[in-house]
Design goal:
Strand content: under 5%
Strand order of the largest sheet: 1-2
Number of helices: 4
Order of helices and strands: EHEHHH
Number of strands: 2
Shape: flat
Distance between the termini: 35 Å
Oligomer: single chain
């Protein structure tokens, strides 16, 4: 994401906070994870404008919410709150 690339993932960890729902592949027994992921990948492979748009959105998300300064402030706040 920080390189401005599109990302396809399953719903793990912070993924739902990082990428848009349409690029999250569900992991349910009734869902075909590989098939759904291949469809999403095919969309990105065949549409350069979509690929650029999603990549740019990802890059903006990282710069807006996940810089080292922001992460450091969040850690500082966590530590300060834990000692109070």
């Amino acid at each position: 994401m920080a390189c401005g690339l599109p990302v396809i993932s399953t719903r793990v960890g912070l993924v739902p906070r990082l990428i848009e729902e349409e690029w999250i592949t569900p992991v349910n027994p009734e869902e075909k994870v590989v098939e759904l992921t291949k469809k999403k990948l095919s969309l990105l492979e065949n549409d350069i404008d979509l690929r650029r748009k999603v990549g740019q959105r990802n890059l903006m998300e990282i710069h807006r919410n996940w810089t080292s300064e922001i992460i450091t402030k969040n850690w500082d706040k966590l530590f300060e709150d834990s000692v109070r």
